C-alpha cells in the first residue's frame, strides 16, 4: 500500500506523486499484484466536435463565394456592362471569403490576425488600382490605419493573455478602453499629419482623458485605494 | 391528452430538465456519473446484453432530445443504446444527433462500469435505480445469479407504472405560495479553469462507520458533519490566503445541498424531483469553530427543511416556467439567455455543492462481486468544485468533480479527515 507522507492518505499503487499535494510518493519496493487502472488516458473531444461545425460553416460560405465568383466572371466576359463595378464586387467577395476563413480560427490567432491584415491591405490596394484615384489615399491613409489597428490588436492580445485570469469585469473593459485610446491617438495623428502636415492631436485627447478616468475608476474599485493615500486624500479634502 | 400510447412517444421536460437543457455547454455539460467498481474485469458483451434486456422496462429513458420551437422535448426512439469503452473525459457533453443519442451512456473500463446521465432526464435517485437494475441484470447474464431481494432496483418483468415518469414538480405545485427570498452573492473559488471539455475527478474513500460515529459524537447527521468539514476547509483556505486577498474574501460561504423530495412527498418518479437548500456561514462575523458550524447547519436545516418551505421553491420554479411570455420566447433566445440568467440568479448564490445520495445497497448475493460505488457531480463553471457522497458496503465515497486543476480544498478537507484518525484512500483521473 502506498501512502503520501505529507497528507497521510492512501494512494493508488502506481502513483508517482500525491494527487492532493503533489509530494513524491516514496517507493517502498513493494512488488505485489498491479492495481487495475481505474481511468483511461482521457481524450478531449471539444476541438474535434467544434471543427465539424466550423467546417460545415466554412464550406457553405465557400460554395456561395465560388458560385458568386463564377456568375460575376460570366457576366464580366459575356455582358458588356459596368466593368469597374463588377471588379469591385469580385474584390469584395474574395476579401469577405478570406476574412471569414481567418476568423474561423483554423490557424493560430496571430497568423489569423496577420492574414486579416494582409487581406485588408490587398483589398484596399486593388480598390485603389481599380478606382485609379488621383490622391495617394492608399499609402497616406489605408496602410497606416490598417498597420496601426494591427499593432494595436497585437499588443492588447498580449496584455489580455497576461490579465485574463483576473476579474473579467474589471480587466476586459480596462484593456478595451486602453486599446481604443491608443487607436484614436494614432488615428488622430495620421489624419492631422496628412491634412495639416503637422502632428496636432485634438479630439483623441478628449477620448484619452475620459477613458483613463474610467480605467482609474474601475481599477480603483477593484484594488481599493491604499490606506495611506486615502488618509492623505481625507486630510487634503477636509472630510 | 391522456391517451397512453401517445404519452409514451413524447415526454415534455420537467421543471429542472427545462433549465438543464438550456444551460448545457461544453464546460457545464449537466451530465453526472455513477461508477460501480467490480472485483473482476467487465465483460462488454454481457453488459450490452443486460442493457438490451432492461431498456424496455425504462421506456422514459429510451428517448432522444429534440428541439422544439419553444422548448426541448424528449421523443421515444427505437434505437438501442450501446455500451462503450471509456476513452473520453468523464461527464462529456451529450450532443443531439438526429435521434441517435440518448440522455445517458453506459461505459466500461477495466473492472469499472460507469453510467452517465444527463441531469435533464433524471436526478441521482432515479439514476441509481437504473444503475442497480443494470448491475443486477449484468450478473444474471454473466453468472446466473438471481437475487431474492432486489432492493430498490426495478423488477424488469413488472408493468410500467405511469407514476414512474410523472412530473412531480407540477403534481405537487401549489398556487399562491409566495416565493422564497432571493439569494445573495457569495464567495467563489478563484481557481484557474481547465480547458473546455476537460473534467477531473477525485474520490476519497473512507470507512463509513467511523465517520458516522464521529458525527454522532457531534450530535448531527452524516450529511451535516461532512458539510461542516467542507465549510471548515473552505474557511481555512480563505484564512490561509495572503493578507491582500483575505479582506476581499471575507464573504459568505454557501453550499448548495440538494434534497431528495421523494422523502418529503409521496412520489416514486424516476425523473427529477429535488430542490436545493443553501446553508451558509458569513466570514465577516469572524472565525467559525466546527461546533459553531454544526450548530449553524442544524439550525438552518431545522428551519428550512420542511414541506412548507420546500413548497415555496417548487411554486417559484414552476410558476416561472409557466409564465406565458417566457414560454413564448423562441428556443434559441432562451438558449442564449439562460446561461446568463442561471449564472446571475442560480450559481451566484452558492460557493460549492454537496449532495448526499445516502446509503445504496446491492442485493446480498452480489456484494462479493461489487467493490465500490461512486457518484460524481456534473461539471460547473461558477462552482468549480463540487462534492457528492454516497455510501456502499461500509465505505463512504467522497467524490469531488472539478473544472479546475487546483487541489487545495481537497487537500485541506482530506487532511482534516486524516487528523480525525480516519483512513482515507484517494483515487483520481488526473495524470
How many domain regions of chain A?
3
- Separate helix tally of chain B: 13
Mean pLDDT across residues of chain B: 89
Total domain count of chain B: 2
Helix content of chain A: 55-70%
Bin the strand percentage of chain A: under 5%
What is the general shape of chain A?
flat
Q: Characterize the largest beta sheet of chain A: strand count, sense, and whether it forms a barrel.
A: 2 strands, antiparallel
Order of helices and strands of chain B: HEHEHEEEEEHHEHHHEEEHHHHEEEEHE
Overall geometric form of chain B: globular
Largest interface: A-B, 26 and 38 residues
Report the end-to-end length of chain A measured between terminal Cα atoms.
67 Å
Write the CATH homologous superfamily of the largest domain in chain B: Nonribosomal peptide synthetase, condensation domain
Transmembrane segments (chain A): 56-79, 85-107, 114-131, 137-160, 172-195, 201-222
Keywords (chain A): Membrane, Transmembrane, Transmembrane helix
Protein name (chain B): Alcohol acetyltransferase
Your description of this structure?
The complex is a heterodimer of chains A (239) and B (431). Chain A is mainly alpha-helical and 239 residues long. Chain A has three domains: 1-40, no CATH class; 55-134; 140-239. Chain A is built from seven helices and two strands. Chain A has helices spanning 46-78, 83-103, 109-131, 137-163, 168-195, 203-223, 227-237, and strands at 2-3, 10-11. The radius of gyration of chain A is 29 Å and the shape is flat. With 431 residues, chain B is of the alpha+beta class. Chain B has two domains: 4-155 and 166-171, Chloramphenicol acetyltransferase-like domain (Chloramphenicol Acetyltransferase), CATH 3.30.559.10; 200-428, 2-Layer Sandwich (Chloramphenicol Acetyltransferase), CATH 3.30.559. Helix content of chain B is 34%, strand content 22%. In chain B, strands 8, 9, 10, 11, 12, 14, 15 and 16 form an eight-stranded mixed sheet that branches. In chain B, α2 (15-23) packs across α12 (331-346). Chain B starts with a helix and ends with a strand. Mean pLDDT of chain B is 89; it is low at 1-7. Chains A and B meet through β2 and α1 of A and β8, α13 and β16 of B. β2 of chain A pairs parallel with β16 of chain B, so a sheet runs across the interface. Chain B: It comes from Acetobacterium bakii. Chain B: This is Alcohol acetyltransferase. Chain A: The chain crosses the membrane at residues 56-79, 85-107, 114-131, 137-160, 172-195, 201-222.
